[in-house]
Amino acid sequence: MKKPGILIVVFLLLLVLIGGVSAYAFFDTQTVSVSENRTLAKRPSLSAQSWFSGAFATGAEDFLSDHVYNRAALVSVAKRMEALMERKTEIKLVSHNAADMAGNAATQAEQTQLTPEGEGGGTFNVGATAAEQEQTQDRLVLEDRILSVYRDAPDNLTYYAQVVNKFLGMFPDYINKYCLLAPSRIAFEPPDIAAYSDDQRTAIEFVYGKLDPLITTIDAYTPLQAHSERLDDLYYRTDHHWTHLGAYYAAEAMFETIGLPYSPLEAYERREGNPFLGYYYAQDPDPALEAHQDELIYYLPKDHPVPPCVLYIPTEEGTMETEAAITVNPLRGGYYTFAGSSFAYSVMDGARDDGGSLLLVADSYGNAFGTWLAENYSRVVQIDPRDYVLGREGVLSLAEEYEITDVMLCDYLGAVDSSYFPAQIEHLTE
């Protein structure tokens, strides 16, 4: 092909590319960037004044820039590249199925279609196991800690908000309804580390803004940030959970929000358990971390015994077997210290005879959290959606049997990275 012909082909390809970008931007309806916490540029209006003043050209450039295809992912990558270039100490980013974290579940074996009221639909993965869901998160491996990386997935955030509304909407309005989304540790790391993750406060506020006005939202981010100068006291370093102390500050925020009195931390005795290496170390073992094991610190009430707990564990025959437990048991080790693991639901006696009865639906962040809630309620019934299979009828039966006065959903934001955990909550409404 002669040179003029090549130039014509290149020119036509450029026209197609520019036209495609412009067409995508024209039909893109996104108005807010959750990760940047700002409003995106609007499509400029064309007039003689805007054309000759140059305002239209400037507005068009901003509009196309804000509505380029897959912009959220590009912004996230740019932030992490910038942090990587600025950081001088050794760091390793371990990727775990980034496609699922971005909310694209089309390649998964099982899917469900959900169309939020008044919003566009989305396809979500419900086929992964709990272990597979936890492995979808990217992690930063440093010399002394491993951090889960939060990725913005607006579709999954919207899905979670709808599921919360749907679940709490099952209960009559005279029952108090609460929601708490907890940030993960990376939110409070130094800026060069935190830059690898999207903004968790903005994501939490995004979800809270979509909840029914009758649902009281609990701000755990602010108190955790206020005490983050000693971050190892709030979160484990080789695991993705908050510590018993981190859960205390979240419970304190809840009691202050809903107007319940609570005992100060000084009313509890601080104890030390055995050191351990957590779940993240098991997934991405690094020899350097063996010299930086986590400390198991827990707190026992000084003026009354630790409340007892009964776990209800599903069997292969479809029945429930019970297991007596205590809510704070340092012999279990790691983040399973509190309430245990792999139970459909548990019933914890509370420390207050005159308190209400709380139904807590939570991921594993609820284990440590529930022990503090039991200090201010007469009873706490905790459901783990991953193991509870009795659905809506079973949930409402529990609420009636234990005379539930308050219902709460508590999850950490990483559980919303993919749609697995929200889908398990949705199963409780069916």
Could you explain how this protein is built, in words?
With 430 residues, the protein is of the alpha/beta class. The chain contains 16 helices and 17 strands. The strands form 5 sheets. The chain has an 8-stranded mixed β-sheet. Strands 3-6-7 form a 3-stranded antiparallel β-sheet, with no helix packed on it. A two-stranded antiparallel sheet has the order 1-2. The longest helix has 25 residues, at 3-27. Residues 82-89 and 98-135 have low confidence and may be disordered.
List the helices and strands and how they pair.
Layout: H1 3-27, E1 32-33, E2 38-39, H2 48-53, H3 55-66, H4 71-86, E3 92-94, H5 98-101, E4 111-114, E5 122-125, H6 130-134, E6 139-141, E7 146-148, H7 154-168, E8 176-182, H8 191-194, H9 200-208, E9 215-218, H10 221-226, H11 231-234, H12 244-258, E10 268-272, H13 279-283, E11 297-301, E12 308-314, E13 320-326, E14 345-349, E15 357-362, H14 365-373, E16 379-383, H15 391-401, E17 406-412, H16 420-427
Parallel strand pairs: 8-9, 8-17, 15-16, 15-17
Antiparallel strand pairs: 1-2, 3-6, 4-5, 6-7, 10-11, 12-13, 12-14, 14-16
Helix pairs in contact: 7-9, 7-16, 12-14
| Rounded Rg | 24 Å
Beta-strand percent range: 15-25%
Count of discrete alpha- or pi-helical segments spanning 4 or more residues: 16
- Please report the distance between the alpha carbons of the first and last residues: 64 Å
Count of individual beta strands: 17
Find the structural class using helix and strand composition: alpha/beta
Report on the biggest sheet: 8 strands, mixed
Q: Low-confidence parts lasting 5 or more residues at pLDDT below 50?
A: 82-89, 98-135
The helix content is 25-40%
Q: Kindly state the mean pLDDT as a whole number?
A: 79
Shape, per Cα inertia axes: globular
How do the strands line up in the largest sheet?
9-8-17-15-16-14-12-13
